[in-house]
Design a protein that fits this description.
The longest helix is centred in the middle third of the chain and has 47 residues. The chain starts with a helix and ends with a helix. The protein is elongated, with a radius of gyration of 27 Å. Helices cover 79% and strands 0% of the residues. By secondary structure, it is mainly α. It has a domain of 39 residues.
Length: 71
Amino acid sequence: MLTILQSFVLYMPFLYFPDDKREYIPAAISMSIFIAACILVFMLIKRVSKKEEEKTKELEEKVNRERQKHL
């Protein structure tokens, strides 16, 4: 079992380090695009969440006022 694990670790075919570093440029571009998209989606989710929180607070205040009237 140990020899199988050792051979797998020593001969990882999915690791590729190119000699020509210009091959990293497309990966860096696509990674930066995805990071920017993630940041934008995160900001959008925060904004929508904040609006929903405000709506919930208004509804809660309305319910509390109605309860006070009936007491």
